Amino acid sequence: MNRADAARRYTAWIERNRWPIVLASIAIAVAAGLVASRIAIRADFSYLLPQSMRSVQDLRAIEKRARVIGTAMVAVESDHPDSRRRAAVMARDRALALGPGMIASITFDERVERQYAWTNRWLFASLPDLEAARDALRRELDHAKLAANPLFVSLDDSPPDTKAADELRDKLADAEAKSKDPGELVSKNGRVQMMILHLGFSTGDVDKDRELVAKLDAIADQIHAELPDVTLGVAGDAPVSLAEHDAILSGMLRATLVTVALVLIALVWYFRSALAIGALSWSLTVGTLATFAFAKLTLGYLNAATAFLSSIVIGNGINVGILVTARYLEELRAGRAPTAALAASIETTIAGTFTAALTAAVAYASLVITVFRGFKHFGIIGGVGILVCWISGYVVLPACLAVAKRAIRPRAVRPTGWIASILPRRLDRVAIVALALTAIAGVVTVKFLTGDPFESNFRNLRSRSDQIAHAQKWMTTIDQNFGQGLDSGFVIAAPNREDVAPLEAKLKQVDAGKADKDKLFARIVSIDDVLPSDQASKLAVLAEIRALLSGKDMDALDDKERAEAQKLRPPDDLHALSADEVPEAVAWPFIESDGSRGKLMLATSGKGYEVWDTRDTMRFASKVRALGLPPDVHLGGASFVFADVIAGVLSDGPRATFAALIGAVIVVLVVIGRNRFALVTIACGLSGTLLMLGISAVAGLKVNFLDFVALPITIGIGIEYSVNILTRARQEGADHAREVLASTGGAVVLCSYTTAVGYGSLLLSQNLGIRSFGIAAMLGEITCLLVALYLAPSLLWLVRPRKA
Question: Which residues contact 121 (CB under 8 A, 6 or more apart)?
């Protein structure tokens, strides 16, 4: 049975079952829409990596162990200190009233820390100070004892040196004064007061983030209404996480709506048939909803790389429907009956669209073989979307056209003959120029890729929105008034309490003797750092001081001297403090969800490492991992996740591109055969890809983990447009595709327009990484279309069979 017979039989089956197919498509769309509407967006970079990767496993392990995972900071600003403090107290009390599910605790001042230091003042004094004070007291008592002897004649007129004891007295007095001052977190100029909210949930919980930020904003508005001279702002993990999520979500919705609107305008302009456009749109709707329902059921969520795929699936998935509908209307205009026209449209387009869809699917599938989840999920959703939309284009679309066949009145299409007229007469020259430009682009590409093509500033992959700018404004205010680093750093988690001290010593030894700019770590803190050091030695010295001040030698002092000396007498109940005796307000960073203490450490990278610079990030992560820490020690921080994201792009990007290229060539050879049409198709795919890379290099575009995806996709697109033109030329026995451009060229340009709209709508996203991908993909779209319109017909003419 040949293709024409198969098409007629299939069309007859569609005719008989058109209504059941349409009704089934409605049921599928409703069910898929309900499922797809529940898909979540996880904007955190850790979801771009396999959950089995060390940095992600460490992060998840720490998230489970840490009692406080996220923080938020509230800044209170006013020119009037009384209003500022009153507003801060109101904000603290109202935030605590939100409950432990929202706010676990609040660091409002240093009252607890200072009281803790005063209560344990003897143990927090330095060991040299205590030893010097002991020796000074001993000399003072010996001198007083001798001076009390009536037979004692001093040959030295100078009194004993009591400077050390006096210094210890002064330090104790200073500690006592501080214990009475709450030590509120107020800037030096007195304008800004800050408090740190320790959250009772992970900031990865977007719903909780939204609830908290909304309640804090409401509190800020209420206080501002009561005290108009005061303004309050929220910064930290929760508002930034929420703002990133909302920026990606709003960008996705905006891109989808713009894509749908612009595509519909183009369809109306080109087809001028409401029913045909309705059939085409419904077919696309079913395919798109089914794609994202599949994503929800299999993957569970969208990440930063896949959140914007809806506009791409729409813009690219509609291509098969455009070609089928265009050919159907063309056959109707030629005088064929609706059923015969439908059969002809299926017969003449299925080979080209199947090759195009399969090539695009293979390009997406090349991303599936990678371990980088940002690529893998993109490939799964994109590949499934192309195939599902292709199936819908040959099942749902024909059924809808069959239902509306009696009402469809094909009007004359918009003139597209100009597409063929812009092709120069000398096709050999066109081919030579196009190939020369491709060669130049290839040279530029090699130089570009062997240089430094990657985006080194991770800030250029973040989102920009009013919401983010607002949070950053208050974070900048906090940084300027209280110092940077409040919202940075990472956690080191040891398996056991006894492992912490040697681990901390090992890490600090790495930077011993180094200048600040050369240090690997700027700070490493454990619960031992909030406990007094050298407690056993101090207790021994303090016992000696207590014995000195309790002995008979005290009788030699006068009442005033005795009273002064007694201030230096340590209490009788002094003992070595344990981690459990540290107040919770001091120990909270080191307390785990199960209540255990002391197995967590906090660290920040050295001053020579910029956390947002990819080079510094990879250098820092590499050096830390080279320290050979035990496998059961977890490192939880953005630097290690960023480093693995970069490594994933570097290792998986070239592999995916090579797989896409090989897969596209195999598909073309298998479907079209080993002939000149296949040769020209492959050449056009390579040319479009190289031209895209060359232009990107000249334009100075940087490669990141999002726009790297544009490369294998462009390989598929480069095949898609050329193969549809060349397949039509083969069917009509043309030696070149000039004649085909007058008919199929219009549909191909429309396909390119809809796909370009899908990519171009990404420029509306607030995420800079998504915008970068949109630019790179649009460049690929333009180069592949120009190659299909100019190089494909020219090369086909050059390799035509020579007549005798």
Answer: 172, 175, 176
- For 572-586, the pLDDT digits (tens) are 888 999 999 999 888
The torsion angles phi and psi of 103, rounded to 5 degrees, stand at -115, 110
Burial group, residue 793, by CB count within 10 angstroms (0-12, 13-18, 19+): buried
pLDDT of residue 256: 87
Please name every residue paired with 299 in a beta bridge, in sequence order, or none if there are none. Answer: none
State mean pLDDT over 298-311: 87
Does residue 268 come out as left (phi exceeding 0), alpha (psi in the -120 to 50 range) or beta? alpha
Tokens 């009704």 -> residue: 23
Q: Which two tokens stand for residue 406?
A: 């009696």
Count the neighbouring beta carbons within 10 Å of the beta carbon of residue 250: 17
- Residue 49 contacts residue 641 (beta carbons within 8 Å): yes
Those residues whose C-beta lies under 8 Å from the C-beta of residue 291, and which sit 6 or more positions away, are: 313, 317, 381, 384, 385, 388, 389
- Reduce the DSSP state of residue 802 to 3 states and report it: coil
Name residue 655's amino acid: R
How confident is the model over 562-617, as pLDDT tens digits? 676 677 788 888 899 999 999 988 888 898 888 899 999 999 888 888 877 888 88
pTM of the predicted structure, to 2 decimals: 0.78
Q: Which residues contact 476 (CB under 8 A, 6 or more apart)?
A: none
582 torsion bin: left (phi>0), alpha (psi -120 to 50), beta (else): beta
Helices (H), 181-227: 206-226
Of 780, 797, 143, the closest CA to residue 445 belongs to 780
Q: Is the pLDDT of residue 109 over 70?
A: yes
d(CA 695, CA 697): 5
Q: Using CB atoms within 10 Å of the CB of residue 612, give its burial: 0 to 12 exposed, 13 to 18 middle, 19+ buried.
A: middle
> What gap in Å lies between CA 285 and CA 499, rounded to an integer?
58
**With 50 as the cut, is the pLDDT of residue 16 above it?**
yes
What string of H, E and C letters represents the secondary structure of 80-147? CHHHHHHHHHHHHHHHHCCCCCCEEEEECECHHHHHHHHHCHHHHCCHHHHHHHHHHHHHHHHHHHHH
Query: Which of 11, 73, 125, 99 is CA-nearest to residue 532?
Result: 125
Q: Distance between CA 454 and CA 703 in Å, rounded?
A: 4
CA 468 to CA 305: how far, in whole Å?
Answer: 20
106 closest CA partner among 185, 42, 6: 185
Rounded to whole angstroms, how far apart are CA atoms 228 and 406? 70
Q: Is 154 within 8 Å of 143 (Cβ atoms)? A: no
Question: Which has the closest alpha carbon to 644: 612, 617, 626?
Answer: 617
Please state, in angstroms and rounded to a whole number, the distance separating the CA atoms of residues 118 and 181.
11
CA angle (377, 380, 384) in 5-degree steps: 145
Tokens 């004892």 label which residue?
145
Q: What is the pLDDT of residues 637-671, one digit of tens each?
A: 878 888 888 888 778 888 888 888 898 888 888 87
Gap between the Cα atoms of 271 and 404, Å rounded: 15
Helix (H) / strand (E) containing 295: helix 274-298
Displacement of CA 205 from its chain's centroid (Å): 15
Contacts for 547 with CB less than 8 Å, ≥ 6 apart:
none
How does strand 301-303 pair with strand 40-42?
Answer: parallel
Half-sphere exposure of 232 (CA within 13 A, CB side): 31
